[in-house]
Design goal:
Elements lengths: L2 H20 L8 H15 L6 H23 L4 H31 L3 H11 L5 H8 L3 H21 L4
Helix pairs in contact: 1-2, 1-3, 2-3, 5-7, 6-7
């Protein structure tokens, strides 16, 4: 296609590119940009275009692809949006952790005092069975039994869904 032939067909090409871009939702803001970009690309390809129909087909395809590319780029999350999403997720995680903490406090309060004391000394203060036995006044073997019972009670409450 010669330069003059291309100049003669430009209004028709532009109208077709604009029509293709506007056929997609939310493309009205930048449909003119898509039409312009399509024409620029067509200008670089004009020497390989054989006919008016060929040019119309190419510009329609280009406009469609450029519009789809723009739509895809719109759906990406910007930096500010990503920060907001991350802040929201952290806030929801904090709320979830607080509710689990409250649940655990309630569950621990339901344990018998000796089981609670043994569990606390073992899990929080990281004492050995011998040290716990000396503090509570029981045998080291009883410490293991009380720990097992306390953990079993907590597990049963988790399975039942109590205190949630």
């Amino acid at each position: 296609m010669t330069e003059q032939e291309f100049v003669d067909i430009v209004p028709q090409l532009r109208a077709l590119a604009l029509q293709k871009a506007l056929s997609y939702p939310s493309a009205s803001d930048w449909a003119d940009d898509v039409a312009q970009d399509s024409l620029i690309k067509m200008w670089t390809l004009r020497e390989s275009v054989s006919s008016r129909q060929h040019a119309l087909g190419l510009v329609a395809t280009m406009a469609r692809h450029l519009t789809i590319d723009r739509l895809r780029k719109e759906h990406t999350v910007g930096l500010e949006q990503a920060r907001n999403i991350a802040a929201t997720e952290r806030a929801s995680e904090r709320v979830e952790e607080e509710s689990y903490g409250k649940w655990l406090d309630k569950a621990l309060k339901k344990l018998p005092p000796t089981e609670y004391q043994v569990l606390h000394l073992r899990q929080v203060e990281k004492l050995s069975a011998e040290e716990i036995a000396a503090i509570v006044g029981i045998s080291p073997r009883s410490v293991g039994t009380l720990l097992s019972r306390a953990r079993k009670r907590l597990l049963e409450q988790i399975k039942k869904g109590k205190c949630l």
